[in-house]
Write a structure and sequence with these properties.
The chain has about 290 residues and is an alpha+beta fold. Helices cover about 45% and strands about 20% of the residues. The strands form three sheets. It has a six-stranded antiparallel sheet, with helices on one face. The longest helix has 27 residues, at about 160-185.
Length: about 290
């Protein structure tokens, strides 16, 4: 097995990049037993198959990966081979350790990234919504990984800044590719259903149109037009309708205080909640509860 494994040389090559767990480039010429058993993944692993065919288990599912396939594995998922070995072939990957990333999509890369926090939240949601760890036709991936490897090994002036920018470029390019692939596979009603599910699961979040558009891989103008054509409402008005619908359910089925219901459904104050509720239903929340 010939390999460039910058994890093993971390003290030398990666000492300035604690958020890069490893950068690995492997060419496997001989099968070694117990070289790739199923284990919980460490960090966000983004990799590429360049030669050979690999049969892996990822998050409990079996996948066959071919040259040109990109694999994307999350910290809470398992990865390995059912045979416990890496087959003959060639592959490379980089593993990143974000400050926060969980299955709900909460994501914070850390101070190294220049991606704004609002966009990191969108990226986290898109990554969490992606259920296929094998990504096809991600053409930008190999070039960016090669440039990262070159910068780390050469350590020329400004290489730290360049590597951080390349990591941002890799993540942004990957998320854009995932969004386009998702739009290609599904029509807008199905995409909208997934978006609505995400909104309902986190109504307390202060959603912006930009974030909602990012979840479905559209620009804000195109997204607004599609939502209005599909629902008859602007995105923010549709979101308010979802919040009021959830508030009605909580008023009918629970004894939660009006203030708690307001905050849980995304209103910034009980007064805002009350005025919006009355505008849309004709009742104040308190009066509505008394009718039940």
């Amino acid at each position: 097995m010939n390999q460039l494994n910058l994890h093993e040389g971390k003290a030398e090559y990666l000492r300035d990049f604690p958020y890069i767990i490893e950068l690995v480039k492997l060419k496997i010429q001989n099968i070694q037993l117990n070289s790739f058993t199923v284990k919980t993944n460490e960090g966000i692993r983004i990799g590429l198959i360049t030669e050979g065919k690999f049969d892996w288990v990822i998050a409990g599912q079996g996948y066959t990966l071919f040259p040109g396939d990109t694999f994307l594995i999350y910290p809470w998922q398992e990865i390995g081979s059912p045979k416990g070995v890496l087959d003959i072939g060639a592959l490379c990957w980089i593993s990143l350790s974000p400050e926060l990333f969980d299955p709900s999509g909460l994501l914070q890369f850390g101070a190294w990234s220049s991606i704004p926090e609002s966009e990191q939240r969108v990226i986290g949601k898109i990554l969490a919504m992606n259920k296929n760890p094998v990504v096809s036709r991600f053409g930008a991936g190999p070039q960016i990984l090669q440039r990262i490897e070159h910068e780390i090994l050469q350590q020329e002036i400004g290489y730290r800044t360049r590597i951080n920018h390349l990591l941002d470029e890799l993540l942004i390019s990957l998320v854009r590719h995932l969004s386009k692939a998702e739009n290609f596979r599904r029509d807008f009603p199905q995409i909208f259903s997934k978006l609505e599910q995400s909104l309902r699961e986190n109504l307390a979040h202060p959603w912006t149109v930009e974030e909602m558009a990012g979840l479905v891989g559209l620009g804000t103008t195109a997204f607004t037009e599609k939502v209005k054509a599909f629902t008859g409402f602007s995105p923010l008005h549709y979101l308010i309708n979802l919040r009021i619908a959830e508030a009605i359910k909580l008023l009918r089925q629970t004894k939660m205080s009006l203030t708690d219901i307001a905050f849980d459904t995304g209103f910034y104050s009980s007064q805002h909640f009350s005025s919006t509720f009355k505008k849309l239903t004709g009742y104040t929340p308190r009066a509505y509860r008394k009718t039940q």
